[in-house]
Amino acid sequence: MALFDLSEVQAAYNGTRVLQNITLSIKAGERIALVGRSGTGKSTLLRLLHSRKKEDIALVPQDLGLVKALSVFHNVYMGRLNRNSSWYNVVNLIRPFRSETKAVHAILEKLRLTDKMFVPVGELSGGQQQRTAVARALYQGRSVFLGDEPVSAVDVLQARTVLKLIIENHETTVLAMHDVELAIQFSDRIIGISGGGIVLDKPSARIKPGDLDALYKH
Fold it and tell me: Domain 2-216 is in which class?
């Protein structure tokens, strides 16, 4: 049975139709990379998928959705706000519980962010903020991960580390990627989007980076 099953779906963003006649089936356990030029509909497709199964999905949007006045710890902890009572969350905001700091620290350690744990997110670099958003998603413990360019602000070495963590901790991943080599390496299925539609859908093993060049031509 499909985890996501779209048939002839249309989708708009800010009142403008972006996706047209999208038919797409995604099974649990698949690792999918969405590729194509900026503005072709990758982000809109991710939002559409997220709207179908919000309760099962950890999402890293392109704008990251972080509260910059709060620390890295609190931004990561926000991933589980719905699992605790309001009073617990308020107390933890003022004086973090040891059990919560320990759990968040373990995730930040994997992303090399422990030294920034109580630093306001607004003081971090773009790459550090991006890793904070990934840490928040990992902290949620969901089975599905949707990421909109989740490693675009880090170097290639860090990108591989982050992508490996994402894949190891989620049963299903759908990632919009700008780096086609990383997209192929960290997926088992490539979906190319152009002109608001799916124009390519193949196993990653059958694709070389040069095969995707046409998707980036105007």
Answer: alpha beta
- What is the separation of C-alpha 201 from the centre of its chain, rounded to a whole number of angstroms? 20
pLDDT above 70: percentage of residues in the chain: 100
Domain limits of the chain?
Answer: 2-216
pTM assigned to the model: 0.92
CA distance 192 to 201: 6
Encoding tokens for residue 78?
Answer: 């926000």
Q: In angstroms, rounded to a whole number, what is the distance separating the alpha carbons of residues 218 and 207?
A: 21
Q: How far apart are CA 32 and CA 39, in angstroms?
A: 19
- Residue scoring higher pLDDT (37 or 106): 106
Tokens of 73: 């710890």
